[in-house]
Amino acid sequence: MTSLNLDVKKLLKIAYEEALIGFNEGGVPVGAALLDSQGNLLGKGRNRRVQDDDPSVHGETAAFKNAGRQTCYTDKILVTTLAPCWYCSGLIRQFRIGTVIVGESQNFEGHLDWLREAGVEVIELNDVGCKVLMAKFIQQNPDIWNEDIGECGNHTHA
Ligand SMILES: [Zn+2]
Q1: Active site annotation includes 60
Q2: Is residue 30 part of a domain?
Q3: CA angle in degrees (0–180, nearest 5) for 3-65-40
Q4: Which of 23, 46, 136, 140 is deepest in the core (most CB within 10 A)?
Q5: Is 31 inside any structural domain?
Q6: Residue 17 — φ and ψ, nearest 5°?
Q7: How many domains does the chain have?
């Protein structure tokens, strides 16, 4: 299935721990990490919409920023607890991140085919822990969730 000779569950755990910290802070529990091709951590982060009052900080963008400058991304791995939104999918395509590991795509299906069409290797893990954490947040904070995915009630853009 995957060309990665890495323990993807172990990589997901880095992102999940970020998501859990976010959840405990009252934030949107999406965590992510950017890794090199050997699975070494370059940067990690979590959605900070609530914590920093900053809608531009998604888990993926935080990990990307915290990893600092990289000369090339085609050999990098982005692991995220939830399927990336358009904003983060755009980042993946803009910088040609080679591999994306997705914790789950049930609470938010994202745009995984759009990534695959661009040649990104997408690995879906269908992880129960990620699903449960996200579902719990959405149930408890439907308004914050809708805000995070850009659903203001006047339109839909799944
Ligand atoms: Zn995003």
Answers
A1: yes
A2: yes
A3: 40
A4: 46
A5: yes
A6: -65, -35
A7: 1
